[in-house]
Amino acid sequence: MAKFEPVLFARINKPDSTSLKTYMADxxxxxxxxxxxxxxxxxxxxxxxxxxxxxxxxxxxCGLKWTFLPKDHPGPIYxxxxxxESEPGTFNNRILMEKDPHQLIEGIMIACHAIKSNNAYLxxxxxxxxxxxxxxxxxxxxxxxxxxxxxIKGTGFNLDIVLHRGAGAYxxxxxxxxxxxxxxxxxxxxxxxxxxxxxxxxxxxxxxNNVETLCCVTQILYRGKEWFQSIGVPxxxxxxxxxxxxGPKLYCVSGHVNKPCCVELPLGVTARExxxxxxxxxxxxxxxKAVVPGxxxxxxxxxxxxxxxxxxxxxxxxxxxGLGTAAVVVIDDQTSMVDVLFNCCRFMSHESCGQCTPCxxxxxxxxxxxxxxxxxxxxxxxLDLLMEVAGSMGIIPGTTICGxxxxxxxxxxxxxxxxxxxxxxxxxxxxxxxxxxxxxxxAH
Amino acid sequence: xxxxxxxLRERIRQEFPKYPNKRxxxxxxxxxxxxxxxxxxxxxxxxxxxxxxxxxxxxxxxMSFYNFFxxxxxxLGKHRIWVCRSISCMLRGGEEVLEKVCNKFHVHPGQTSAxxxxxxxxxxxxxxxxxxxxxxVDDECHMDMNAESVAALIEKL
Lengths: 444, 157
Prior knowledge:
Chain A is about 40% helix and about 10% strand. Chain A has about 450 residues and is an alpha/beta fold. Chain B contains 7 helices and 4 strands, in the order H-H-H-H-E-H-H-E-E-E-H.
Protein backbone atom coordinates (compact mmCIF):
# COMPACT_ATOMS: atom_id res chain seq x y z
CA MET A 1 0.00 0.00 0.00
CA ALA A 2 1.30 3.46 -0.88
CA LYS A 3 2.26 5.63 2.07
CA PHE A 4 -0.63 7.82 3.14
CA GLU A 5 0.10 11.54 2.79
CA PRO A 6 -1.34 13.56 5.67
CA VAL A 7 -3.85 16.24 4.77
CA LEU A 8 -5.15 17.66 8.06
CA PHE A 9 -1.58 17.56 9.38
CA ALA A 10 0.07 18.53 6.07
CA ARG A 11 1.23 21.90 7.39
CA ILE A 12 1.95 21.30 11.06
CA ASN A 13 5.72 20.91 10.78
CA LYS A 14 6.25 23.81 8.42
CA PRO A 15 7.96 26.96 9.70
CA ASP A 16 5.57 29.68 10.84
CA SER A 17 2.62 27.36 10.08
CA THR A 18 0.23 29.47 12.17
CA SER A 19 0.46 32.69 10.16
CA LEU A 20 -2.08 33.83 7.61
CA LYS A 21 0.73 34.53 5.15
CA THR A 22 2.06 30.96 5.04
CA TYR A 23 -1.45 29.49 5.09
CA MET A 24 -2.36 31.54 2.01
CA ALA A 25 0.96 30.69 0.34
CA ASP A 26 -0.06 27.03 0.72
CA UNK A 27 -3.38 27.71 -1.02
CA UNK A 28 -5.50 28.46 2.04
CA UNK A 29 -8.49 30.81 1.60
CA UNK A 30 -7.80 30.69 -2.17
CA UNK A 31 -11.34 29.51 -2.91
CA UNK A 32 -13.18 30.97 0.07
CA UNK A 33 -14.88 33.66 -2.02
CA UNK A 34 -16.14 31.03 -4.44
CA UNK A 35 -17.36 28.76 -1.60
CA UNK A 36 -19.14 31.66 0.16
CA UNK A 37 -20.90 32.35 -3.14
CA UNK A 38 -22.31 28.81 -3.35
CA UNK A 39 -25.88 28.23 -2.21
CA UNK A 40 -25.74 27.10 1.45
CA UNK A 41 -27.72 23.96 0.64
CA UNK A 42 -25.10 22.97 -1.93
CA UNK A 43 -22.36 23.24 0.71
CA UNK A 44 -24.40 21.05 3.06
CA UNK A 45 -24.88 18.49 0.31
CA UNK A 46 -21.16 18.27 -0.43
CA UNK A 47 -20.43 17.55 3.24
CA UNK A 48 -23.38 15.18 3.53
CA UNK A 49 -22.49 13.26 0.37
CA UNK A 50 -18.86 13.01 1.45
CA UNK A 51 -20.07 10.98 4.44
CA UNK A 52 -18.20 13.05 7.04
CA UNK A 53 -18.96 11.79 10.53
CA UNK A 54 -18.26 13.90 13.61
CA UNK A 55 -14.79 13.43 15.06
CA UNK A 56 -15.64 14.39 18.65
CA UNK A 57 -16.71 10.97 19.85
CA UNK A 58 -20.26 10.12 18.82
CA UNK A 59 -19.60 9.89 15.06
CA UNK A 60 -22.88 11.51 14.04
CA UNK A 61 -23.02 12.41 10.31
CA CYS A 62 -22.06 16.08 10.12
CA GLY A 63 -24.04 17.14 7.03
CA LEU A 64 -27.16 15.41 8.35
CA LYS A 65 -26.85 17.31 11.65
CA TRP A 66 -26.79 20.56 9.69
CA THR A 67 -30.06 19.67 7.91
CA PHE A 68 -31.87 19.42 11.28
CA LEU A 69 -31.94 23.23 11.55
CA PRO A 70 -35.39 24.70 10.96
CA LYS A 71 -35.93 25.87 7.38
CA ASP A 72 -36.12 29.63 6.72
CA HIS A 73 -35.43 30.53 10.34
CA PRO A 74 -35.17 34.32 10.74
CA GLY A 75 -32.07 33.84 12.93
CA PRO A 76 -29.89 34.18 14.74
CA ILE A 77 -28.46 30.69 14.26
CA TYR A 78 -25.27 29.85 16.16
CA UNK A 79 -22.27 27.64 15.54
CA UNK A 80 -20.43 26.39 18.61
CA UNK A 81 -17.01 24.92 18.07
CA UNK A 82 -16.33 22.24 20.64
CA UNK A 83 -12.68 22.69 21.60
CA UNK A 84 -13.14 21.38 25.13
CA GLU A 85 -11.02 18.35 24.29
CA SER A 86 -10.76 16.57 27.66
CA GLU A 87 -11.16 12.84 27.06
CA PRO A 88 -8.12 11.24 28.69
CA GLY A 89 -5.56 10.31 26.06
CA THR A 90 -6.82 12.80 23.46
CA PHE A 91 -4.77 15.70 22.08
CA ASN A 92 -5.39 15.87 18.32
CA ASN A 93 -7.46 19.06 18.42
CA ARG A 94 -4.79 20.81 20.47
CA ILE A 95 -2.22 20.17 17.72
CA LEU A 96 -4.63 21.36 15.02
CA MET A 97 -5.26 24.62 16.91
CA GLU A 98 -1.65 25.23 17.93
CA LYS A 99 -0.14 24.44 14.53
CA ASP A 100 -2.70 25.26 11.86
CA PRO A 101 -5.38 27.60 13.21
CA HIS A 102 -6.40 28.92 9.80
CA GLN A 103 -7.46 25.48 8.56
CA LEU A 104 -9.96 25.49 11.44
CA ILE A 105 -11.05 29.11 10.91
CA GLU A 106 -11.68 28.43 7.22
CA GLY A 107 -13.79 25.40 8.23
CA ILE A 108 -15.76 27.62 10.62
CA MET A 109 -16.40 30.11 7.82
CA ILE A 110 -17.61 27.37 5.47
CA ALA A 111 -19.82 25.75 8.14
CA CYS A 112 -21.35 29.09 9.15
CA HIS A 113 -22.14 29.88 5.53
CA ALA A 114 -23.76 26.44 5.12
CA ILE A 115 -25.97 26.80 8.20
CA LYS A 116 -26.61 30.55 7.68
CA SER A 117 -24.96 31.60 10.90
CA ASN A 118 -23.18 34.89 11.48
CA ASN A 119 -21.98 34.11 14.99
CA ALA A 120 -19.55 31.40 15.98
CA TYR A 121 -18.47 30.73 19.55
CA LEU A 122 -15.31 28.71 19.98
CA UNK A 123 -15.47 27.06 23.40
CA UNK A 124 -11.86 26.33 24.32
CA UNK A 125 -10.83 24.47 27.45
CA UNK A 126 -8.87 26.77 29.75
CA UNK A 127 -5.85 24.45 29.93
CA UNK A 128 -5.07 25.09 26.25
CA UNK A 129 -3.31 28.42 26.82
CA UNK A 130 -1.10 28.09 23.78
CA UNK A 131 -4.09 27.27 21.56
CA UNK A 132 -5.85 30.32 22.95
CA UNK A 133 -3.02 32.69 22.08
CA UNK A 134 -2.52 31.11 18.63
CA UNK A 135 -6.22 31.29 17.74
CA UNK A 136 -6.57 34.80 19.15
CA UNK A 137 -3.73 36.01 16.91
CA UNK A 138 -5.10 34.13 13.88
CA UNK A 139 -8.61 35.56 14.34
CA UNK A 140 -7.17 39.09 14.60
CA UNK A 141 -5.22 38.52 11.37
CA UNK A 142 -8.46 37.47 9.66
CA UNK A 143 -10.33 40.59 10.79
CA UNK A 144 -7.45 42.76 9.55
CA UNK A 145 -7.46 40.97 6.17
CA UNK A 146 -11.23 41.23 5.70
CA UNK A 147 -11.72 37.48 6.14
CA UNK A 148 -13.90 37.99 9.21
CA UNK A 149 -16.34 40.74 10.07
CA UNK A 150 -18.76 42.42 7.69
CA UNK A 151 -19.16 41.62 3.99
CA ILE A 152 -16.33 39.09 3.79
CA LYS A 153 -14.46 39.37 0.47
CA GLY A 154 -17.41 41.31 -0.98
CA THR A 155 -19.75 38.30 -0.77
CA GLY A 156 -22.20 40.01 1.58
CA PHE A 157 -21.52 37.32 4.21
CA ASN A 158 -20.87 38.50 7.79
CA LEU A 159 -19.18 36.43 10.46
CA ASP A 160 -17.82 37.03 13.95
CA ILE A 161 -15.88 34.42 15.90
CA VAL A 162 -15.74 34.75 19.69
CA LEU A 163 -13.14 32.80 21.67
CA HIS A 164 -14.65 31.66 24.95
CA ARG A 165 -12.47 29.98 27.58
CA GLY A 166 -13.80 27.22 29.82
CA ALA A 167 -12.81 26.61 33.43
CA GLY A 168 -11.71 23.00 33.66
CA ALA A 169 -14.76 20.75 33.45
CA TYR A 170 -14.91 17.58 31.32
CA UNK A 171 -18.69 17.81 31.09
CA UNK A 172 -18.40 20.97 28.95
CA UNK A 173 -17.46 18.67 26.07
CA UNK A 174 -21.03 17.32 26.09
CA UNK A 175 -22.75 19.58 23.59
CA UNK A 176 -25.60 20.81 25.77
CA UNK A 177 -23.26 21.09 28.79
CA UNK A 178 -21.11 23.29 26.60
CA UNK A 179 -24.11 25.43 25.69
CA UNK A 180 -25.14 25.88 29.34
CA UNK A 181 -21.57 26.79 30.25
CA UNK A 182 -21.37 29.35 27.44
CA UNK A 183 -24.58 30.91 28.71
CA UNK A 184 -22.86 31.52 32.04
CA UNK A 185 -24.39 28.66 34.01
CA UNK A 186 -23.19 25.43 35.59
CA UNK A 187 -22.56 22.95 32.78
CA UNK A 188 -25.49 20.65 33.40
CA UNK A 189 -26.45 18.82 30.19
CA UNK A 190 -29.99 19.39 28.95
CA UNK A 191 -32.69 16.83 28.40
CA UNK A 192 -33.09 16.15 24.67
CA UNK A 193 -35.26 16.76 22.73
CA UNK A 194 -35.25 19.57 21.92
CA UNK A 195 -31.90 19.01 20.26
CA UNK A 196 -29.62 22.04 19.89
CA UNK A 197 -30.44 22.32 16.17
CA UNK A 198 -33.98 23.30 17.21
CA UNK A 199 -33.29 25.05 20.52
CA UNK A 200 -29.68 25.49 21.55
CA UNK A 201 -27.50 28.40 22.58
CA UNK A 202 -29.53 31.34 23.93
CA UNK A 203 -32.57 29.20 22.96
CA UNK A 204 -31.80 29.64 19.26
CA UNK A 205 -31.03 26.95 16.65
CA UNK A 206 -27.44 25.87 17.20
CA UNK A 207 -24.94 23.47 15.68
CA UNK A 208 -22.10 22.13 17.79
CA ASN A 209 -19.13 20.73 15.83
CA ASN A 210 -15.75 19.41 16.87
CA VAL A 211 -12.46 21.03 15.80
CA GLU A 212 -11.22 18.10 13.69
CA THR A 213 -14.65 17.80 12.03
CA LEU A 214 -14.46 21.42 10.88
CA CYS A 215 -10.91 20.95 9.61
CA CYS A 216 -12.26 18.03 7.54
CA VAL A 217 -14.97 20.38 6.19
CA THR A 218 -12.26 22.70 4.84
CA GLN A 219 -10.49 19.81 3.09
CA ILE A 220 -13.71 18.36 1.66
CA LEU A 221 -14.69 21.67 0.08
CA TYR A 222 -11.23 22.05 -1.47
CA ARG A 223 -10.61 18.45 -2.54
CA GLY A 224 -14.12 17.20 -3.19
CA LYS A 225 -16.35 14.51 -1.77
CA GLU A 226 -14.82 11.86 -4.08
CA TRP A 227 -11.41 12.48 -2.53
CA PHE A 228 -12.88 12.03 0.97
CA GLN A 229 -14.64 8.81 0.00
CA SER A 230 -11.46 7.42 -1.53
CA ILE A 231 -10.06 7.16 2.03
CA GLY A 232 -11.26 4.94 4.86
CA VAL A 233 -13.84 2.19 5.09
CA PRO A 234 -17.03 2.04 2.96
CA UNK A 235 -20.37 1.05 4.55
CA UNK A 236 -20.87 -2.58 5.47
CA UNK A 237 -23.11 -4.00 2.68
CA UNK A 238 -24.73 -6.33 5.25
CA UNK A 239 -25.72 -3.45 7.52
CA UNK A 240 -28.08 -0.95 5.87
CA UNK A 241 -27.70 1.43 8.84
CA UNK A 242 -23.91 1.72 8.57
CA UNK A 243 -22.90 5.05 6.99
CA UNK A 244 -19.28 3.89 6.64
CA UNK A 245 -16.12 5.45 8.03
CA UNK A 246 -14.73 7.72 5.35
CA GLY A 247 -11.80 10.10 5.44
CA PRO A 248 -8.56 10.61 7.30
CA LYS A 249 -8.45 10.47 11.12
CA LEU A 250 -6.02 11.78 13.68
CA TYR A 251 -5.08 8.89 15.95
CA CYS A 252 -3.45 9.72 19.29
CA VAL A 253 -1.19 7.02 20.74
CA SER A 254 0.06 7.35 24.31
CA GLY A 255 0.87 5.33 27.41
CA HIS A 256 3.41 2.49 27.39
CA VAL A 257 4.89 2.98 23.90
CA ASN A 258 8.35 4.11 22.84
CA LYS A 259 7.17 7.09 20.81
CA PRO A 260 3.81 8.52 21.88
CA CYS A 261 2.42 10.47 18.94
CA CYS A 262 -0.56 11.79 17.04
CA VAL A 263 -0.67 10.43 13.49
CA GLU A 264 -3.04 11.01 10.60
CA LEU A 265 -4.13 7.82 8.82
CA PRO A 266 -7.11 6.54 6.86
CA LEU A 267 -9.93 5.43 9.17
CA GLY A 268 -9.71 1.71 9.81
CA VAL A 269 -6.12 1.06 10.93
CA THR A 270 -5.68 -1.39 13.79
CA ALA A 271 -4.31 -0.80 17.27
CA ARG A 272 -1.47 -3.21 16.48
CA GLU A 273 -0.44 -1.18 13.40
CA UNK A 274 -0.50 2.02 15.42
CA UNK A 275 1.67 0.55 18.16
CA UNK A 276 4.16 -1.26 15.93
CA UNK A 277 4.44 1.01 12.89
CA UNK A 278 3.83 4.48 14.29
CA UNK A 279 4.53 4.54 18.03
CA UNK A 280 7.79 2.57 18.02
CA UNK A 281 6.39 -0.51 19.77
CA UNK A 282 5.68 -1.17 23.43
CA UNK A 283 8.27 0.37 25.77
CA UNK A 284 11.01 -1.46 27.68
CA UNK A 285 10.70 -4.48 25.37
CA UNK A 286 7.46 -5.49 27.05
CA UNK A 287 4.20 -6.70 25.57
CA UNK A 288 0.91 -4.85 25.61
CA LYS A 289 -1.76 -6.30 27.83
CA ALA A 290 -4.63 -3.95 27.03
CA VAL A 291 -5.41 -0.99 24.80
CA VAL A 292 -7.90 1.81 25.25
CA PRO A 293 -9.33 2.23 21.72
CA GLY A 294 -10.72 5.77 21.83
CA UNK A 295 -10.39 7.52 25.17
CA UNK A 296 -11.12 5.79 28.49
CA UNK A 297 -14.92 6.06 28.05
CA UNK A 298 -14.80 3.48 25.28
CA UNK A 299 -13.48 0.61 27.41
CA UNK A 300 -10.57 -1.74 26.62
CA UNK A 301 -9.29 -4.15 23.99
CA UNK A 302 -7.73 -7.34 25.31
CA UNK A 303 -4.66 -8.68 23.52
CA UNK A 304 -6.63 -10.87 21.12
CA UNK A 305 -8.58 -7.79 19.96
CA UNK A 306 -5.59 -5.66 18.88
CA UNK A 307 -6.29 -6.37 15.20
CA UNK A 308 -9.76 -4.82 15.38
CA UNK A 309 -10.20 -2.01 12.86
CA UNK A 310 -10.34 1.41 14.48
CA UNK A 311 -13.20 2.70 12.34
CA UNK A 312 -16.58 3.81 13.66
CA UNK A 313 -17.96 0.26 13.70
CA UNK A 314 -14.90 -1.73 14.80
CA UNK A 315 -14.61 -1.24 18.57
CA UNK A 316 -18.34 -1.92 19.03
CA UNK A 317 -17.87 -5.39 17.50
CA UNK A 318 -15.64 -6.44 20.41
CA UNK A 319 -17.77 -5.01 23.20
CA UNK A 320 -16.34 -1.49 23.42
CA UNK A 321 -18.61 1.56 23.43
CA GLY A 322 -17.32 2.88 20.09
CA LEU A 323 -14.44 4.63 18.36
CA GLY A 324 -14.75 7.68 20.63
CA THR A 325 -11.95 10.14 20.03
CA ALA A 326 -9.64 7.47 18.52
CA ALA A 327 -7.22 8.08 21.37
CA VAL A 328 -5.29 4.86 21.85
CA VAL A 329 -3.71 4.31 25.27
CA VAL A 330 -1.40 1.31 25.55
CA ILE A 331 -1.04 -0.58 28.82
CA ASP A 332 1.90 -2.98 29.27
CA ASP A 333 1.89 -6.45 30.80
CA GLN A 334 3.54 -5.28 34.04
CA THR A 335 0.57 -3.05 34.91
CA SER A 336 -2.42 -4.21 36.90
CA MET A 337 -5.83 -3.52 35.38
CA VAL A 338 -7.00 -2.83 38.94
CA ASP A 339 -4.82 0.29 39.03
CA VAL A 340 -5.84 1.31 35.50
CA LEU A 341 -9.53 0.92 36.24
CA PHE A 342 -9.19 2.82 39.50
CA ASN A 343 -7.67 5.72 37.57
CA CYS A 344 -10.57 5.69 35.07
CA CYS A 345 -13.22 5.55 37.81
CA ARG A 346 -11.60 8.32 39.85
CA PHE A 347 -11.56 10.54 36.75
CA MET A 348 -15.25 9.95 36.05
CA SER A 349 -16.22 10.45 39.66
CA HIS A 350 -14.30 13.75 39.73
CA GLU A 351 -15.90 14.89 36.46
CA SER A 352 -19.50 13.75 36.95
CA CYS A 353 -21.51 16.99 36.99
CA GLY A 354 -23.76 15.70 39.78
CA GLN A 355 -27.05 16.34 38.05
CA CYS A 356 -28.23 12.71 37.72
CA THR A 357 -28.10 10.57 40.85
CA PRO A 358 -27.08 7.24 39.20
CA CYS A 359 -24.00 8.93 37.73
CA UNK A 360 -23.04 11.07 40.73
CA UNK A 361 -23.46 8.19 43.20
CA UNK A 362 -22.47 5.37 40.84
CA UNK A 363 -19.12 6.88 39.85
CA UNK A 364 -18.36 7.68 43.50
CA UNK A 365 -19.22 4.18 44.72
CA UNK A 366 -17.27 2.45 41.96
CA UNK A 367 -14.25 4.52 42.97
CA UNK A 368 -14.78 3.62 46.65
CA UNK A 369 -15.08 -0.08 45.90
CA UNK A 370 -11.87 0.00 43.85
CA UNK A 371 -10.13 1.97 46.60
CA UNK A 372 -11.08 -0.76 49.04
CA UNK A 373 -9.72 -3.43 46.69
CA UNK A 374 -6.49 -1.46 46.29
CA UNK A 375 -5.95 -1.28 50.04
CA UNK A 376 -6.08 -5.08 50.29
CA UNK A 377 -9.62 -5.19 51.69
CA UNK A 378 -11.42 -6.37 48.54
CA UNK A 379 -13.88 -9.25 48.36
CA UNK A 380 -14.56 -11.33 45.27
CA UNK A 381 -18.24 -10.34 45.35
CA UNK A 382 -17.12 -6.71 44.87
CA LEU A 383 -16.63 -7.55 41.18
CA ASP A 384 -20.31 -8.45 40.78
CA LEU A 385 -21.25 -5.33 42.70
CA LEU A 386 -19.14 -3.21 40.34
CA MET A 387 -20.82 -4.83 37.34
CA GLU A 388 -24.25 -4.20 38.85
CA VAL A 389 -23.54 -0.51 39.48
CA ALA A 390 -22.04 -0.12 36.00
CA GLY A 391 -25.07 -1.77 34.43
CA SER A 392 -27.51 0.59 36.07
CA MET A 393 -26.10 3.95 34.99
CA GLY A 394 -26.21 5.74 31.67
CA ILE A 395 -28.30 6.58 28.63
CA ILE A 396 -28.29 2.93 27.59
CA PRO A 397 -30.20 1.70 30.69
CA GLY A 398 -32.08 5.02 30.53
CA THR A 399 -31.19 6.47 33.90
CA THR A 400 -29.16 9.56 33.02
CA ILE A 401 -29.44 12.67 30.84
CA CYS A 402 -26.07 12.46 29.10
CA GLY A 403 -23.55 9.84 28.08
CA UNK A 404 -20.87 10.60 30.67
CA UNK A 405 -22.02 7.73 32.83
CA UNK A 406 -22.12 5.28 29.93
CA UNK A 407 -18.49 6.27 29.49
CA UNK A 408 -17.91 5.73 33.20
CA UNK A 409 -19.59 2.32 33.16
CA UNK A 410 -17.89 0.96 30.04
CA UNK A 411 -14.31 0.67 31.30
CA UNK A 412 -15.69 -1.13 34.38
CA UNK A 413 -17.70 -3.59 32.29
CA UNK A 414 -14.83 -4.26 29.87
CA UNK A 415 -12.12 -4.49 32.52
CA UNK A 416 -14.00 -6.97 34.67
CA UNK A 417 -15.32 -9.12 31.82
CA UNK A 418 -12.07 -9.17 29.81
CA UNK A 419 -9.51 -9.11 32.64
CA UNK A 420 -11.36 -10.77 35.50
CA UNK A 421 -8.27 -12.83 36.35
CA UNK A 422 -6.32 -9.65 37.16
CA UNK A 423 -8.97 -8.61 39.68
CA UNK A 424 -9.42 -12.03 41.27
CA UNK A 425 -5.68 -12.50 41.69
CA UNK A 426 -5.34 -9.04 43.18
CA UNK A 427 -8.15 -9.53 45.69
CA UNK A 428 -6.96 -13.00 46.71
CA UNK A 429 -3.40 -11.75 47.29
CA UNK A 430 -4.69 -9.12 49.75
CA UNK A 431 -1.89 -6.80 48.62
CA UNK A 432 -2.15 -3.02 48.48
CA UNK A 433 -0.78 -0.71 45.78
CA UNK A 434 -1.91 2.69 46.97
CA UNK A 435 1.20 4.83 46.56
CA UNK A 436 2.30 7.72 48.72
CA UNK A 437 1.43 10.13 45.89
CA UNK A 438 -2.11 8.78 45.83
CA UNK A 439 -2.38 9.31 49.55
CA UNK A 440 -1.44 12.94 48.97
CA UNK A 441 -4.34 13.24 46.56
CA UNK A 442 -6.72 11.59 48.98
CA ALA A 443 -5.76 14.21 51.55
CA HIS A 444 -7.08 16.95 49.26
CA UNK B 1 -15.49 51.13 48.71
CA UNK B 2 -15.53 48.71 45.80
CA UNK B 3 -13.21 45.75 45.31
CA UNK B 4 -13.18 45.72 41.51
CA UNK B 5 -11.09 48.46 39.95
CA UNK B 6 -12.61 50.66 37.28
CA UNK B 7 -10.14 49.19 34.82
CA LEU B 8 -11.36 45.66 35.58
CA ARG B 9 -14.97 46.78 35.31
CA GLU B 10 -14.27 48.32 31.93
CA ARG B 11 -12.65 45.11 30.69
CA ILE B 12 -15.74 43.18 31.75
CA ARG B 13 -18.05 45.69 30.01
CA GLN B 14 -16.02 45.30 26.83
CA GLU B 15 -17.17 41.67 26.67
CA PHE B 16 -20.87 42.61 26.54
CA PRO B 17 -21.16 43.20 22.76
CA LYS B 18 -19.87 39.70 22.03
CA TYR B 19 -22.96 38.02 23.51
CA PRO B 20 -26.72 38.57 23.25
CA ASN B 21 -27.07 38.79 27.04
CA LYS B 22 -24.90 39.77 29.97
CA ARG B 23 -25.15 36.47 31.81
CA UNK B 24 -22.91 34.86 29.17
CA UNK B 25 -20.13 37.13 30.40
CA UNK B 26 -20.09 35.28 33.76
CA UNK B 27 -17.15 33.01 32.92
CA UNK B 28 -15.07 35.71 31.18
CA UNK B 29 -15.69 38.06 34.14
CA UNK B 30 -14.80 35.39 36.70
CA UNK B 31 -11.57 34.67 34.80
CA UNK B 32 -10.57 38.33 34.73
CA UNK B 33 -11.26 38.90 38.42
CA UNK B 34 -9.69 35.60 39.47
CA UNK B 35 -6.58 36.25 37.44
CA UNK B 36 -6.07 39.80 38.69
CA UNK B 37 -7.03 39.27 42.35
CA UNK B 38 -5.92 35.59 42.80
CA UNK B 39 -9.38 34.76 44.22
CA UNK B 40 -13.01 35.75 43.75
CA UNK B 41 -14.24 37.12 47.06
CA UNK B 42 -17.86 37.34 48.17
CA UNK B 43 -17.69 41.11 47.66
CA UNK B 44 -16.32 40.59 44.14
CA UNK B 45 -19.16 38.15 43.36
CA UNK B 46 -21.67 40.82 44.39
CA UNK B 47 -20.02 43.42 42.18
CA UNK B 48 -19.83 41.05 39.20
CA UNK B 49 -23.52 40.25 39.71
CA UNK B 50 -24.38 43.94 39.71
CA UNK B 51 -22.46 44.50 36.47
CA UNK B 52 -24.12 41.50 34.79
CA UNK B 53 -27.57 42.30 36.22
CA UNK B 54 -27.75 38.94 38.03
CA UNK B 55 -28.38 37.83 41.58
CA UNK B 56 -25.10 37.16 43.43
CA UNK B 57 -26.33 33.59 44.05
CA UNK B 58 -26.42 33.01 40.29
CA UNK B 59 -22.79 34.08 39.91
CA UNK B 60 -21.81 32.00 42.93
CA UNK B 61 -23.70 28.99 41.58
CA UNK B 62 -21.74 29.09 38.33
CA MET B 63 -18.44 29.87 40.00
CA SER B 64 -18.69 27.03 42.51
CA PHE B 65 -19.49 24.49 39.80
CA TYR B 66 -16.04 24.90 38.31
CA ASN B 67 -13.37 23.82 40.79
CA PHE B 68 -11.11 26.23 38.97
CA PHE B 69 -12.09 29.37 40.89
CA UNK B 70 -10.89 30.03 44.43
CA UNK B 71 -12.70 32.01 47.11
CA UNK B 72 -10.94 34.48 49.41
CA UNK B 73 -10.16 31.80 51.99
CA UNK B 74 -8.11 29.90 49.40
CA UNK B 75 -6.32 32.63 47.44
CA LEU B 76 -3.93 31.52 44.73
CA GLY B 77 -0.19 31.96 44.97
CA LYS B 78 1.80 33.83 42.35
CA HIS B 79 1.91 30.73 40.14
CA ARG B 80 -0.39 27.79 39.84
CA ILE B 81 1.10 24.40 39.00
CA TRP B 82 -1.18 21.64 37.79
CA VAL B 83 0.15 18.10 37.68
CA CYS B 84 -1.77 15.71 35.46
CA ARG B 85 -2.92 12.52 37.16
CA SER B 86 -4.99 10.97 34.35
CA ILE B 87 -4.28 7.69 32.60
CA SER B 88 -1.47 8.48 30.12
CA CYS B 89 0.50 10.45 32.71
CA MET B 90 -0.22 7.93 35.46
CA LEU B 91 1.20 5.15 33.27
CA ARG B 92 4.43 7.12 32.75
CA GLY B 93 5.15 8.40 36.24
CA GLY B 94 2.84 11.38 36.73
CA GLU B 95 2.25 10.53 40.37
CA GLU B 96 6.00 10.63 41.11
CA VAL B 97 6.13 14.11 39.58
CA LEU B 98 3.26 15.18 41.80
CA GLU B 99 5.04 13.82 44.85
CA LYS B 100 8.19 15.73 43.92
CA VAL B 101 6.33 19.03 43.70
CA CYS B 102 4.49 18.34 46.98
CA ASN B 103 7.77 17.70 48.77
CA LYS B 104 9.49 20.69 47.23
CA PHE B 105 6.91 23.16 48.48
CA HIS B 106 5.70 21.21 51.53
CA VAL B 107 2.13 21.36 50.32
CA HIS B 108 -0.65 18.96 49.46
CA PRO B 109 -2.62 19.36 46.25
CA GLY B 110 -4.96 22.33 46.62
CA GLN B 111 -2.63 24.22 48.96
CA THR B 112 -0.39 27.25 48.52
CA SER B 113 3.23 27.32 49.64
CA ALA B 114 4.01 29.34 52.79
CA UNK B 115 5.90 31.97 50.77
CA UNK B 116 2.86 32.45 48.50
CA UNK B 117 4.87 31.53 45.43
CA UNK B 118 3.00 28.47 44.23
CA UNK B 119 -0.42 26.89 44.45
CA UNK B 120 -0.29 23.20 43.63
CA UNK B 121 -3.15 21.31 42.02
CA UNK B 122 -3.68 17.97 40.39
CA UNK B 123 -5.27 18.15 36.99
CA UNK B 124 -7.33 15.73 34.97
CA UNK B 125 -5.99 15.01 31.46
CA UNK B 126 -4.22 18.13 30.16
CA UNK B 127 -4.37 16.92 26.55
CA UNK B 128 -0.62 16.62 26.11
CA UNK B 129 -0.33 12.83 26.38
CA UNK B 130 2.40 12.61 23.73
CA UNK B 131 4.58 14.32 26.34
CA UNK B 132 3.36 12.46 29.42
CA UNK B 133 3.87 13.08 32.24
CA UNK B 134 3.04 16.72 31.76
CA UNK B 135 2.31 19.70 33.97
CA UNK B 136 0.73 23.08 33.45
CA VAL B 137 2.31 26.20 34.92
CA ASP B 138 -0.41 28.85 34.87
CA ASP B 139 -1.70 28.05 31.37
CA GLU B 140 1.52 26.96 29.69
CA CYS B 141 2.09 23.22 29.31
CA HIS B 142 5.43 21.50 29.96
CA MET B 143 5.91 17.98 28.67
CA ASP B 144 8.08 14.93 29.41
CA MET B 145 8.53 15.78 33.06
CA ASN B 146 10.43 13.67 35.54
CA ALA B 147 11.64 14.32 39.08
CA GLU B 148 14.75 16.19 37.82
CA SER B 149 13.16 18.26 35.05
CA VAL B 150 10.26 19.34 37.23
CA ALA B 151 12.70 20.38 39.95
CA ALA B 152 14.68 22.43 37.41
CA LEU B 153 11.51 24.05 36.12
CA ILE B 154 10.40 24.98 39.64
CA GLU B 155 13.78 26.57 40.38
CA LYS B 156 13.20 29.04 37.55
CA LEU B 157 9.80 30.23 38.77
